[in-house]
Amino acid sequence: MQVGHPPIIAIFLLLLGHSMGQLRRTTINRQINGNRTHANVKAEKIVLAAKYFLVDKQSSQTTQVLTNGFNLEYTIRVCIGTPPQCFNLQFDTGSSDLWVPSVKCPSTNVACQEHNKYNSSASSTYVEDGGGFSLEYGTGSLLGFRSRDTVNIDGMVIRNQTFVEAVDEPGSAFVDVIFDGIIGMAFASLSGGITTPFDNIIRQGLVQRPVFSVYLRRDGSSQSGGEVIWGGIDRSIYRGCINYVPVSLPAYWQFTVNSVKVRDILLCNGCQAIADTGTSLIVVPLRAYNAINRALNATDNGEGEAFVDCSNLCKLPNFNLNIGGSTYTLTPKDYIYKLQDNNQTLCLSGFSYLEGNLLWILGDIFLGTVYTVFDVGQERIGFAKLKKNSTYGIYRPTYVREPPSYGIDYSFYGDVYYRYFT
User: Fold this and answer.
1) Which CATH class is domain 24-203?
2) pLDDT tens string 318-346
3) Cβ–Cβ under 8 Å, residues 233 and 242
4) pTM of the prediction?
5) Distance, CA of 237 to CA of 369 (rounded, Å)
6) What architecture is the 241-420 domain classified under in CATH?
């Protein structure tokens, strides 16, 4: 009797295994500030205000000194040029620009001088672009100019990638951070017409699917901060199903949260949120911020930050976020930071406020509790609950069927879409 199917199945499985084996993985390095202070939080908020075009009152104070870096930083290693010049770049889904310090920055710019710098004259693949670049921060403007070169991310060689050589980094917010620059992973509409690195990765056929997924590791003392998986997902990291919701508009990774509750208090009903790996905080609208402080019996310092009594942490409530019909829970361990100021331990609520903000900006307080899939091709974002004692770092080829894409009339929202959501 002739048996035809087993060989066909074997070939199919072989091809499938080879296909999934093409997923590329980049280790995320995590740097926890060993002496977390209130200044760390202020530094983060200066950068957040710039990304979201918001006002940070405290950043305009000339007496403010930010010398401790950020509270928590996630970076990946990226090399530019031929031969490669390598940098630790903040992995930031809340922006779309790729920038690194330039060897042309003045000797008086401390932040630039204390980090790795790109030297175009040392690269045989450098192409002059010449376009200017400016990004406003509360402490001044980050200034630079555009260049093009080969960019290498763990063997993914991106040809002719446009990036920014920064020649002036403002204030002191970037002086002691471990990252040299930033690689933005949001949509190209935020990048001023520059093709983003991931868009070029897709166009140049470096991944099989226009997707990247992220696992941020918050626990433990290890510098291993998780992984970026380019072109697919890893089922060994999460349990259950991936819960997808459509991106509201392809700019930030913005989506609808059905509700947020603490105890019996409804903080959000159909509000707009952004997944932002570039911050450790959750920044919320003013009304929600005030309600959260009442629920936590927290004291606001007048600068959009609130503190709780460290002796009452065990009595604090959980927060439940309903996204796409699934509920994700944040415990006090997730959203309370212990800081050191003047030899005193303070307990800071991770829920913060920036003037003018109407969105829920979800940093690693939330993203560190889930596995997140950023689906560029279908303009959607997916969340899954992490496995307990996740076998992080072990790759197991799997095939996951994806539901069809969503149809959204983005033109309805206009250019300042984020101002229309509350």
Assistant:
1) mainly beta
2) 999 999 999 999 999 999 988 877 788 89
3) yes
4) 0.83
5) 12
6) Beta Barrel (2.40)
Place of tokens 């970037």: 174
Q: How many CB atoms lie within 10 A of CB 298?
A: 21
> Is residue 92 annotated as part of the catalytic site, yes or no?
yes
- Please confirm, yes or no, whether 154 is among the known catalytic residues: no
Given the DSSP bridges, would you call strands 156-168 and 140-153 parallel, antiparallel or unpaired? antiparallel
Say which of 56, 149, 176, 276 is annotated catalytic. 276
pLDDT tens profile 358-415: 999 999 999 999 999 999 999 999 999 998 755 343 333 332 323 333 333 333 333 3
What is the rounded CA–CA span in Å between residue 163 and residue 143?
A: 13
Q: Which residue has the tokens 């509000």?
A: 271
Which DSSP string do the residues of 132-179 spell out, in sequence order? EEEEEETTEEEEEEEEEEEEEETTEEEEEEEEEEEEE--TTTTTS-S-
Query: How many Å apart are CA 27 and CA 395, to the nearest integer?
Result: 13
83/160 Cα distance (integer angstroms): 15
**Site of tokens 């829970």:** 329
Rounded to whole angstroms, the Cα distance separating 281 from 362 reads: 7
**Rounded Cα distance, 422 and 413, in Å:** 13
In CATH terms, are 24-203 and 241-420 the same topology? yes
* Domain positions in the chain: 24-203, 241-420
Which two structure tokens, joined as six digits, stand for 268? 């959000």
Q: Which of 92, 97, 149, 199 is catalytic?
A: 92
Cβ 111 vs Cβ 68: under 8 Å: no
Distance between CA 150 and CA 47 in Å, rounded? 27
